[in-house]
Input
Amino acid sequence: MPVGCVLKASLIYTLVLCSAAASEQWGESLPPVPVWSVQGNHYNIGLQIGSTFRSRILSAMKNNTFFNDRMLPYNQTTEGSSLYSAYFDTASKRYPQYMDELRGMADGTQMKFSEVFLWNLKYEWKLLLEPRSGTLPTPSCTDIFLANGESMMVMGHNEDGDTIDITTGYIIEAQIMEESGRTEEFYAFCYAGDLCGKAFGYNGKGVVTTVNALFPKHVNTSAMARNFINRATLTSSYEEIQKILQEVPCSSGFSLNVGTFKGDMTISNFEVAPSGVVETKVKGYGYHFNMYLHSDVPQYEDPSSEHRLARVRELPPPTDARDITTILGDTEDKKYPIYRTATPPDTAVTLATGVFDMSGKLLNLYRGNPAHTEPVVIPLPNLI
Output
């Protein structure tokens, strides 16, 4: 694998800012991803994120047509207000600390808390308000795994999103200290205004998590919105993640990929749906997209996932981390490539690529096509 610069977490901010690489579609360097370190309790880290990235959060919300034209007006109706209250009560009872993060973010951005909370219900409300019998064109992600014992444990992830996310996303390096003495540490790529945890990251317990959105046709409005479950798993151990996914019913769905780089190194995939969760241990070569592969769940079709799956099956299985970056950078399918550039009919763009080499305990972070750009290399053990 090509090696750019090796750095400790405390130095990431400046070097990641210099790591933008050319995009085939955009014809120029992608804007750099800012990295920000935050410390404090849950409210305080939300406040710091909100005040630091206020312009990015406001821009993301302003440019989201579904949020402005459908969600906000619907929330003013009796039916919408009742739905909002149901999600609010569920989240408040189970995860008051993450509600505090959103309150801090609302204060930092000088927005109403109700709007920031509503923003974190986008996946559920999209499925509820715009059900489709055909396709559901939504930003997506690709994961490639290689689990050949402790000698070769690699998780590669393309983070795909809307084009607005190119200039509104950020990376958060957090150390959370609660009054009880409990601490949390994580490093994660985050979407503006969302709770951290719905993209890719790693934590102080030696766990890597990456997420693929899934689109079940059934939504359980009395269960937990997926953003809150994603936030909880971001800072959890493998055993804690198993418990969370078994105990906390999910309103919609997602695929959670979990790797451990401390102690016994393992990779597992969890497919989560309102009907339950299915865990699949990765042995050898594995992959995941934005579709249920191991669960019998009625779901909306995603042509991009179908094309990416077909293309991956055409390619030779990877034998090392470099092969994984080659797959994640593949653009052979011109309609729906693995490395995405928002070229119609595809609507999503690959925002960043993270390749976690758990054997070498390194994160290779790419801003541009990983097949032919240099990464920033981050040692996983040195979280803070």
User: Anything to note?
Assistant: The CA atoms of residues 152 and 320 lie 7 Å apart.
